[in-house]
Backbone:
């Protein structure tokens, strides 16, 4: 089936309102596993496992040689976990408040991560200078999806890997993410998602391919708890528990794409010269 044109060009922000400013107001609650972002804490282990498995399969076992840019890093939940595994991580976010929270937490834990304030539409990196780019829980917040993907493709080296997870635009995602979790139970802060900005896998794949990124088949990302326990947790506004990969992409999905070109060109396993970082 051909991709629709809904996300093949930028959306008018006035026609798809979304409250991205909320994330600047959270402060230390970014790191509270039972706080307003508890769903992210539930999802993070599965996201980290997928990133680590995918990147090592593509780029080799030496994590310290892999230069990672975590776009939309927020308070640093993914950045810190990847740095703990040994990756060389830079976290980037448009929110100064979120970046300050991430820096403060890294100082407390002693984890080495570089954090910068910046936009997904103008990445602070040279062409072909990065081995991996992460877009976790970010794509559905971007009005200009093609612009962001173009920047990711620009900074990735040939053979580099883009890892992402996002929300599908389906009736099931509207019911669960918008009506139940956001409007009814307020487990997700109201207004921080807009169903029109959710992205169908075939739409995302078309944008990736347009910019020289070859996508793999995505996997679903969902809680592993039995249905009755999941419903009880939702009703009590408690953590949803561990997430895992599934065959259904009806609500959330995770995947990756590889930049076209010789996989060994500038390889993380063999490169000794670190490219210069562009200045913001």
Residues:
């Amino acid at each position: 089936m051909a991709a629709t044109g809904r996300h093949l060009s930028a959306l008018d922000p006035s026609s798809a309102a979304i409250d991205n400013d909320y994330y600047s107001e959270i402060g230390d609650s970014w790191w509270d596993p039972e706080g307003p972002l508890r769903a992210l804490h539930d999802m993070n282990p599965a996201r980290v496992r997928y990133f680590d498995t995918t990147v090592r399969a593509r780029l080799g076992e030496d994590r310290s040689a892999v230069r990672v840019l975590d776009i939309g890093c927020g308070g640093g939940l993914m950045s810190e976990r990847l740095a703990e595994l040994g990756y060389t991580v830079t976290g980037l976010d448009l929110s100064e408040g979120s970046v300050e929270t991430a820096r403060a937490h890294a100082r407390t834990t002693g984890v080495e991560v570089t954090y910068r304030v910046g936009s997904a539409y103008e990445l602070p990196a040279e062409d072909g200078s990065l081995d991996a780019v992460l877009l976790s829980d970010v794509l559905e917040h971007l009005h200009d999806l093609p612009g962001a993907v173009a920047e990711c493709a620009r900074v990735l080296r040939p053979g580099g890997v883009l890892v992402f997870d996002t929300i599908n635009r389906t009736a099931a995602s509207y019911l669960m993410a918008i009506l139940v979790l956001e409007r009814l139970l307020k487990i997700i802060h109201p207004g921080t998602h807009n169903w029109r900005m959710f992205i169908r896998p075939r739409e995302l794949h078309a944008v990736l391919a347009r910019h020289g990124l070859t996508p793999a088949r995505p996997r679903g990302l969902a809680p592993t708890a039995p249905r009755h326990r999941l419903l009880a947790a939702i009703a009590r506004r408690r953590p949803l528990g561990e997430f895992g990969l599934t065959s259904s992409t009806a609500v959330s999905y995770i995947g990756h794409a590889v930049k076209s070109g010789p996989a060994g060109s500038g390889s993380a396993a063999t490169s000794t010269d670190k490219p210069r970082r562009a200045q913001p």
Observations:
- The chain is about 30% helix and 20% strand.
